[in-house]
Design goal:
- The chain is of the alpha/beta class and 236 residues long.
- It has a domain of 156 residues: P-loop containing nucleotide triphosphate hydrolases (Rossmann fold, 3-Layer(aba) Sandwich), CATH 3.40.50.
- It is built from ten helices and eight strands.
- Strands 3-4-2-5-1-6-7-8 form an eight-stranded mixed β-sheet, sandwiched between helices.
- Helix 2 crosses helix 3.
- It is globular, with a radius of gyration of 16 Å.
């Protein structure tokens, strides 16, 4: 299936949230490659086709982590689709400076919608984006629908890896719905801004739906040379 290339500004050096694109040789970009490697090791006996990224509450930086991991996997040669599944407060279209008139909501509600007209192919090789689309009144119902299952199956045939940028776990059930259906889930924790009880509650909610929580990214950790984010550690 051929996707038309979308106009975007991901190469803009003033986009610190996309550091894997703007500063690929930085310490932080190397950290994302380390996370990518650890994910591979965690799924050594399984073909990883879908990955969920979520957090306990808002402001943890899960969307930034999702975007940079998508770039990192695409740089590895995988055909990657990043889906903005946060249909309550979407941000992926802002990160990549894409229109958001149509997106996931369109694909779930319009039977005549075609993926080739909705998915954005970026300048970065192997990287594709499905924005959220219009904010619906019933996100949880849409994500739990049979149509969502069908769409996921269809997309897994077209892409090597699908990354779902999910809403926070505690606030709504959306994250549980999708995390229960993906091969793995990464949990983003904001260093210094995370509430311990909320984090534990989030892990409990993900365990309830038997989500495969592979590990956590501790975000916004100062490093010696780059004052950005990330550390990856397995849950034990």
């Amino acid at each position: 299936m051929f996707f038309k290339k979308s106009k975007n500004q991901t190469a803009n050096i003033e986009r610190p949230s996309l550091i894997t694109l703007t500063r690929p040789s930085s310490v932080v970009s190397e950290q994302f490659r380390t996370i990518r490697t650890n994910i591979h090791f965690s799924m050594v006996d399984t073909d990883l086709k879908s990955l969920s990224i979520t957090s306990a509450g808002p402001g943890a930086g899960k969307s930034t982590i999702s975007a940079n991991l998508a770039v990192s996997f695409a740089n590895e040669g995988k055909k990657v689709l990043l889906i903005d599944t946060d249909m309550r407060k979407p941000t992926v279209h802002k990160t990549f400076r894409l229109p958001n008139h149509d997106g996931l909501t369109t694909m779930l509600t319009d039977r005549n919608a075609e993926l080739v007209n909705i998915i954005h192919r970026l300048d970065t090789d192997n990287l594709y984006i499905l924005t959220s689309g219009a904010i619906p009144p019933n996100p949880a119902e849409l994500l739990a629908s049979k149509r969502m299952e069908q769409l996921k199956t269809e997309l897994e045939e077209l892409f090597d890896l699908i990354i779902f940028d999910l809403p926070p776990v505690v606030a709504v059930t959306d994250a549980q719905i999708i995390a229960s259906k993906t091969d793995g889930t990464i949990f983003v924790i904001n260093k210094g801004g995370a509430d311990k009880e909320m984090v534990l509650k989030s892990k409990e909610l993900l365990d309830k739906v038997q989500a495969n929580v592979m590990g956590a990214v501790l975000n916004r950790v100062d490093t010696k040379n780059d004052h950005y984010y990330t550390y990856y550690g397995e849950n034990r």
